[in-house]
């Protein structure tokens, strides 16, 4: 069975407390990170251990790290990259020594996910993250910043913090002229360097797809469709080189058939982590996030969960972004309520699918026998 988790930004940065997360039905643990440590710096083992104990004291498990961010110099292959890769390996060692065996990361140049609206009003009175390519595609980074300043209503989009304006402009310039194959070569260089450590400490690496799943701001993107995922699988044969299967990110492009991607034999055994959420397409390069329920979005969540069950995915899963509902003022996409509803909905789907197939579905997630086995 899958193991349900919840993304948590840590005691300093997340207004949602662990005791609340603990009360979500079927919740086994959290996915977290030392967000205070900048990309490229080493994660101290004692800090990881401290976080792990903090989570365990609340009756939850620390089920994985999201993310240890990859320094931009590694992505564009600067001659300083070896030093940053060495630091990345030290961070992996710290995580591994603390008994944590899952790391989510991405290899997207400069940005994490991009949206044009952090609080798009939906018909039911909730708000959700929205994207309209007509607004941002074709803009330079500077123009995008100007748009955000005018329209963000005080919110900051991760990666688009206003104090990063000059830094981001400079970062984008460094990628000028780089092709997808150039970026892939740098990705392979990184994977080849870290895999021996992942094997030694039993750390499954799950690269997160690009979001949205198409090119933006003239930057190459290499994790946006089935073909891209197969290329990544072939870069390094270690089974620890794998994916975070994010249905909402891949699903931002309607051309991506997610159950088919899950069933691809070169991909399925490398799915180490699943982010499962829904999106509603409203036009070409235009979508908003929706509740997790199939009929509220454009993705068939039953077919997605069925594909995951059928390929034998027994790893860590989490609901991904949620809407803001019931008046909650949350970190955009990361409120408590809608993600909690998503977590229980996904468990309902999995229970029904497994029982229908006569597969085992444990009645107690907290029993040692059924607990997560790595
Ligand atoms: Mn995701």
Give the SSE map.
Elements: E1 3-7, H1 18-22, E2 29-32, H2 45-57, E3 61-66, H3 72-75, H4 81-97, E4 102-105, E5 117-121, E6 127-132, H5 133-136, H6 141-151, H7 165-174, H8 180-201, E7 204-207, H9 226-235, E8 241-246, H10 247-250, H11 258-263, H12 265-268, E9 271-276, E10 279-283, E11 286-289, H13 301-310, E12 316-319, H14 337-356
Bound molecules: manganese (II) ion.
Quick synopsis:
This protein is α/β, with parallel strands linked by helices and 374 residues long. The protein is built from 14 helices and 12 strands. A hairpin with a 2-residue loop joins β10 and β11.
| Domains (count) | 1
Give the amount of beta strand, in percent: 15-25%
- Count helical runs: 14
Which H/E pattern describes the elements?
EHEHEHHEEEHHHHEHEHHHEEEHEH
Number of strands: 12
Which small compounds were modeled alongside the protein?
Answer: manganese (II) ion
Q: Would you state the CATH class?
A: Alpha Beta
- What's the CATH architecture name? Alpha-Beta Barrel
CATH homologous superfamily designation: Divalent-metal-dependent TIM barrel enzymes
In the CATH scheme, what's the topology name? TIM Barrel
- The chain-level mean pLDDT equals 91
Helix content: 25-40%
Give unreliable regions as ranges: none
- Biggest sheet: strands, sense, closure? 8 strands, parallel, barrel
Order of strands, widest sheet: 1-2-3-4-7-8-9-12
End-to-end CA span: 13 Å
Query: What is the radius of gyration?
Result: 19 Å
Category by helix and strand content: alpha/beta
Broad shape: globular
């Amino acid at each position: 069975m899958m193991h349900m988790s919840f993304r948590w930004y840590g005691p300093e940065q997340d207004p949602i407390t662990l005791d609340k997360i603990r009360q979500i039905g079927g919740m086994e643990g959290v996915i977290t990170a030392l967000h205070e440590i900048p990309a490229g710096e080493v994660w101290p083992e004692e800090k990881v251990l401290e976080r792990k104990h903090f989570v365990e004291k609340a009756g939850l498990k620390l089920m994985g790290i999201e993310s240890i961010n990859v320094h931009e110099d590694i992505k564009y292959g600067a001659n300083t990259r070896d030093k940053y890769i060495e630091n990345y390996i030290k961070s992996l060692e710290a995580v591994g020594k603390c008994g944590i065996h899952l790391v989510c990361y991405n290899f997207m140049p400069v940005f994490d996910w991009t949206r044009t609206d952090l609080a798009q009003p939906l018909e039911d009175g909730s708000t959700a993250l929205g994207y309209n390519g007509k607004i941002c595609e074709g803009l330079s980074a500077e123009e995008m910043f100007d748009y955000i300043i005018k329209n963000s209503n005080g919110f900051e989009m991760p990666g688009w913090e206003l104090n990063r304006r000059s830094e981001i402009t400079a970062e984008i310039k460094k990628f000028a002229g780089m092709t997808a194959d150039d970026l892939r070569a740098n990705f392979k260089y990184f994977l080849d360097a870290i895999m021996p450590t992942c094997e030694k400490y039993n750390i499954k690496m799950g690269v997160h797809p690009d979001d949205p799943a198409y090119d933006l701001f003239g930057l190459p993107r290499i994790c946006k469709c089935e073909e891209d995922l197969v290329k990544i699988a072939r870069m390094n044969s270690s089974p620890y080189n794998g994916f975070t299967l994010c249905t909402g990110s891949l699903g931002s492009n309607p051309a991506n058939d997610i159950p088919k991607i899950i069933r691809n034999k070169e991909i399925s055994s490398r799915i180490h982590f699943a982010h499962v959420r829904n999106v509603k397409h409203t036009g070409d390069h235009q979508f908003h996030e929706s509740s997790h329920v199939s009929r509220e979005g454009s993705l068939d969540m039953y077919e997605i969960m069925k594909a995951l069950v059928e390929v034998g995915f027994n790893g860590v899963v989490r609901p991904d972004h949620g809407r803001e509902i019931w008046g909650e003022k949350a970190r955009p996409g990361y409120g408590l309520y809608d993600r909690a509803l998503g977590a229980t909905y996904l468990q309902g789907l999995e229970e029904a699918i497994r029982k229908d197939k006569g597969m085992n579905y444990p009645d107690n997630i907290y029993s040692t026998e059924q607990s997560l086995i790595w």
